[in-house]
Amino acid sequence: MKGENTLEAGWNPWHGCHKLSPGCLNCYVYRMDARHERDASIVRKTGDFSLPLRRARGGAYKLAPGTMVYTCFTSDFLLEDADAWRPEAWAMMRERSDLMFLFITKRIERLSACVPPDWEDGYPNVVVGCTVENQAMADRRIPVFREAPIRHKFIACEPLLEEITLAPYLGPWAEQVVVGGESGSAARLCDYEWILALRAQCVAAGIAFRFRQTGANFRKDGRIYRIERRFQHVQARRAGIDFDPEKDACAAVEFSGGI
């Protein structure tokens, strides 16, 4: 979760989703499918469903041990439509205990109905992120997420739509907070002050913080920037505000680099 894995791969066992909350308004999956005249609300099992178990001609797994597998990023792993397929997906994740699987959900309240019988307090090779795009979703989802039996948890404030107070919820149970703006031509505004406020809350709680992307419509110091997709991650890295409590000795330092 914090960058130990150098190998990365994507695995989308199913594709398509249903819009659920404000963060879904300009969903990139819907935008992508619209370009190909596909209906993103139709959920389908993909040809990559069995990817974790596939082997190369020599017999080795195609996904090498130690790979971080970004899972179900064109859907939601806990989506109701996938209930019939998920047990097999869990079985592959259990069998490939040499991989780390990471998925992000807006449906954390469904976890208890979706986990396999041997889940207990979570598989050690599964990382779960919970999306909270505004204060209402933070107040609704984080209390459920905090108590959920998961070994590795992080909070995803993407797309960040307003200033959010996470301080009452933060604690050792959360490994990281990831923040980013919204992409696409219709992207809603993301303000750098909101990001810095979340960073300060993470520093105070000793929780790792990552500014992942600016989004396309970004405000800093009162000025609004339209940022091309190819620069959104780069500009976030240039800000230099990521925080790792295990490495950053000067935890209270405020950074102002970037755009």
Secondary structure blueprint with pairings:
Elements: E1 8-11, E2 14-15, H1 28-35, E3 44-45, E4 68-71, H2 86-95, E5 100-105, H3 111-114, E6 126-131, H4 135-147, E7 152-157, E8 176-180, E9 190-191, H5 192-205, E10 208-213, E11 217-220, E12 223-226, H6 229-239
Parallel strand pairs: 1-4, 4-5, 5-6, 6-7, 7-8, 8-10, 9-11
Antiparallel strand pairs: 2-3, 11-12
Count of alpha and pi helical runs: 6
The N- and C-terminal alpha carbons lie at a distance of: 26 Å
What are the low-pLDDT stretches, counting only 5+ consecutive residues below 50?
251-257
Taking all Cα atoms into account, the compactness measure Rg is 18 Å
How do the strands line up in the largest sheet? 1-4-5-6-7-8-10
Strand-residue fraction? 15-25%
Please count the beta strands (DSSP E, at least 2 residues each): 12
In oligomeric terms, what are we looking at?
single chain
**Class computed from helices, strands and strand pairing:** alpha/beta
Fraction of residues in helix: 10-25%
Mean pLDDT: 94
Overall shape: globular
For the biggest sheet, the summary is: 7 strands, parallel
| Order of SSEs | EEHEEHEHEHEEEHEEEH
Sum this structure up briefly:
The chain is 23% helix and 20% strand. It has 6 helices and 12 strands. The protein has 259 residues and is of the alpha/beta class.
Describe this structure in words.
- With 259 residues, this protein is an alpha/beta fold.
- The protein is built from 6 helices and 12 strands.
- Strand 6, helix 4 (135-147) and strand 7 form a beta-alpha-beta unit.
- The longest helix has 14 residues, at 192-205.
- The two termini are 26 Å apart.
- The relative contact order is 0.11.
